[in-house]
Amino acid sequence: MNKQLKKYLHSRAITSPWQIGGISRTGFTAAIIVPALAEGESLPATLESLCLNPPEYLVRTWVVVVVNNRADIPAEPLADNQKTIDWLRSNPYPQLNLVWVDASSSGLELPARDGVGLARKIGFDASLPLLDWGVDPLLISLDADTLVDQQYLPTIFDHFARSNKGTVVIPFRHQPVPSPKQEIAIRHYELYLRSYLFGLQLAGSPYAYHSIGSAFACRAEAYVKAGGMNRRCGGEDFYFLQQLRKISGIEMVRGTVVRPSPRFSNRVPFGTGKTVQAHVEEGSAQFHFVPVGGFQMLKEWFELIDGHLDLPADQISQQALNISPVLYQFLTELNFNQIWEKLQENHSSRRQLLAAFHNWFDALRTRQLLTRIEINSCFSAEQIVEELLSWGGYAGVGKTADQLDLMEKLQGV
Q1: Partner of 89 at 20 to 30 A CA spacing, among 229, 281, 310, 374?
Q2: Which domains does the chain have, with CATH numbers?
Q3: What's the average model confidence in pLDDT over 5-19?
């Protein structure tokens, strides 16, 4: 066990009171972490989809189901969790190295303010000392309502064997639903997610990737260097992937697709389930498509920094004002001038300074800036995306279905 791992386990890891149950051996090459809260109906399908992966990959991988809830959980989901734990103890899938963490029973519940972020962290942290650190082990994040295909593990393993990056994000497509309204809502939300990623790619953002908890994997070493998973009840994937990008880089893998559930959910303050539910029940979207002008502004901002790393802060700010008053105001609120002076003082080489800038102007600050871009209410989502696609070299794609189809292909689905 290396020194950095020992330090992490001592200072940052959550090692009690939760323990992994059902262990028959250790030394696995990878661990798949699956948080489960009242997932008695969906978890079997997820595990069955994993079983379809090649045996030579399954034998190297263990699956850690973290059955979790807070103490104030209603009786019905609590009973579901307890039934799930009993079911896991019965070894329902002998072809899987299936283990579990009881974060549900009396005295083992999650603290009142915690949720899926802590559940993921418990599974990741508990797995670390039980992996084979002689082979650069992997940590894979999945959800209990998400289906994978037969190339899921081969694609992940093979990608890391070829790449020196610490993290991969996996293409996704939500499962179809019989309700027409819900199906329209989930595809509308997917269009938003895909158009946002497409815009970031065109702008040259180093944070151009999806942030979905069931669709990423990382080297265990990168996990430790990043300080481990955070305990957020929602958005834990966004902040964790942002940190991983800063520490070890992120790539988008191709060759497999995960299929999350589009079901309604109020388990987290935001996310797919809550967004789709609001769209169907209230007829309102909790998100706004970013117009092409926002991404063009972002691209100009990045090009300004990249081409003028020697300029003093006041001159950078003045040129930012020429790009957009919105950008200038945002930078003023962030005290950019003082930040830029410190970055220039502390980083002498061009490569280091540019990396330090992007570590500061990260995924969160990018999103905060883009949410300030005014949207012309006269334009529909289709029109906004059509203009964005045209800027990216794909003119004349005006229908939602065609836009989705195109971006799915571009993004590896």
Answers
A1: 229
A2: 3-172+210-256 (3.90.550.10), 181-207+265-287 (no CATH), 292-370 (no CATH)
A3: 93
